[in-house]
Amino acid sequence: MRIKKRSNTVRVPPVKKVIKVKRKSSDKEEESTVTKAIKNVKKVLEKKDIKATDTSETVPIPKTRKSHKISKNKRRHIRLRKKYPRGIIYLGHIPHGFYEEEMTDYFKQFGKITRVRIVRSKNTGRSRGYGYVEFMHPEVAKVAAETMNNYLMCGRLLKATYIPPEKQHNGFFTSESWSKEIYPKIINRNKVNKVRNGNVKKQNHVSFVQSTRDKLSALEKKLKEKGFDMNFIPVDDSRY
Question: Which among 46, 66, 103, 238 would be 20 to 30 A from 201, CA to CA?
Answer without folding.
Answer: 238
